[in-house]
Structures are given as structure tokens and as C-alpha cells.
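ok so dumb question maybe but i'm new to this and my supervisor (M.) told me to 'just get the structure for Histidine--tRNA ligase' and walked off. so i did the thing. is this what she meant?? sequence i used:
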Amino acid sequence: MPDRAAILAEAARLRGQFEAAGALPVETAVLQPAGTLLDLYGEDIRARAYITSDALRGEQMLRPDFTVPVVQMHMAHGAEPARYTYAGEVFRRQEDDADRANEYIQVGFEIFARDDAARSDAEVFSTFHALLAPLGLQPATGDIGILMAAVDGLETSERRKAALRRHIWRPRRFRALIERFSGRAPVPASRAELLAAKDPMAAAGPMIGLRGPEEVAARIAALREDAAMPPLSENDVALIEALLAVRGASEDALEQLRDIAVDLPAIAPAVTRFAARLEAIGAQGIDAAALPFEASYGRTQMEYYDGFVFGFTAPGRPDLPPVATGGRYDALTRQLGAGREIPAVGGVIRPGLTLELGAAT
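this is what came out, is it supposed to look like this??
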């Protein structure tokens, strides 16, 4: 791994390239309020972040990512079109892989624009594509928005749809919910006993933890309501499975998705956006039809992506994380905008990896 001075110099070079593309350089604090990220992603973020406590400011988190603080900064000053670049350390715990760095430098490029989302997606992707071209990396693309639209189109309760949307970024949990909602997975014996009890709270014993009796009773009522719902149809489950299985060259993937949209019309607008994006990427001089596409791609990245997602990896180096990743995060600007919103897309590069791979070429 290159030394820190060389990585910082490479970060400055990359940031300079984004400045040349019209981006304004910005800085964000290394210590971020933990409450914002916990509100966005729930307690799961604790497993991936370093959290400390401040007597005056409460829980603080070492910056796990730049996008959230950059969006907060932008939305605090209005929601007008802008583009930004930044460089600095991010911190992420690596409990499952001791060889992965838990602190590294990240360089990013973000575009906030109200007109022509396909063009903005294409500009961000093509900018990264050109910067990384000398390294011979393998691109990957996907679209979280298509899966979100598919969930919205299911014939089931809003409560079930909300649960599926919440776990789109947790593929195993998402699969388990599909199995449960379709009736393929048996109801656990403990839950069946709880739901069958005339008064589940009667034998509950003393209350332990933060939840009060009202919250527990509300949860039991929600479980009973869900148990009374008819299962997801085999057709809906088959369509979700067909969607998640889509992968290959983008041109072929587009045709597969159009076929699925005949039976799942809820995804049709998202598929149309996918087609427009391919056309815009092609206009940048990239062979968009041949770009690899996977409907499930991006589901283990940060949870704010809700549309186009992309990444670049080093062939033959499965030991390395992606050199660059990015995507669209329109919903995040709504969540942090205090009543304002603006479409946004961006990405990040790890300069330590570009140096390491560049030295090997």
C-alpha cells in the first residue's frame, strides 16, 4: 500500500480533475452527529461505524461517508443546482475482515441538478470511467430504483411493502421476508403461540428494556394483522425472483426488464429511465449496450442509493474492495431537506487503490 503522503497527493490530483469538471471543493467535519445517521439507517449503522460520546453534543460518529454531510450542507443553503468535490478520511469498522482498512482516504464528486437525471447519471459515470480508464478496471452497473418500484407494485399491505423496502439493502433479510410473506417459510412456533394467546400480555412478566407495554401491545397487534393477510401470490414472487436474476450486458438486461414489465407494470417508468440513461451514457462515447448490468448490484452499499448505481473493480484482485462506487440518491435530499429536495447523483474513488493498481500496471 502506498504511503500516506503519496495517497494525499493522488487525492489532490483526483479532486483537481473534478474541479476541472466544474465542482466546488468543500470540507466536512470528521466528527458527525450520530443521530442523523441512526435516524436514517437505524441501529445497524453501529456495526459499521465508530461512535463516541460528547458531554455537550451527545453521540458523535467518525465520518463513515461524505455524502450525508455534503447533502446536509447543500440543503441547509437551499436546494439549487450545484456540484461539489471533496477529499478526506472516512472510517468504517471491519469486524469480518481484518485485512480491510478501517480508515482510508476518499475523493468524491456530487451533482445536484433538477433537469435531465439521465444526463447527470451519464456525466458522473463517464467522468469516473475516463479517470479510471488507465487502470483497466471492470465496471458494474445496477438500478436500485427498479427493485423499489417492483416492491411498490406488489399486491400486499403497505406494512409489508415498507418492511421489504427497508431491507432491500440486506439481501438475506429481504429474501427471508419474501419467504415469510409468501407462506413458503413456516411461522416460528414461538410466534404462533404468541398470536394464538387470548391475552399475550397476561404472562409477559416484568417489563425489561426500553419498550413500554403500549409499544409491545402495538407490535403484537401488527403481527396479528400481518398473520391475517393473504400470502404473496406465486406470480408476484416469481416476478421478483425473475427481476433479481437479471444480469448481463445492459442491452440484453433492458430487454429482459421490458419483458418483466409486461406482467409487473409498476417497474415500467424505472425501466424507461434505465433506457434513457443508457442512451445518455452512449452519447458520452461509451459502449453503453455492453456495460455489465445486474439488478441486485449495489444492495450491500450505503443505504441512501435509490436509483442508478455503479462501481469499478480490479479484475483478478478479489482481495481488494471496489476502487470506485457511486449512484443516485434523490430520496436522501428529501429526508435531509426540511421540506426541500433536489435530484442528486455522485460517486467516490479510493486514491490509495488507484496508486496501488497504477504501480502494478
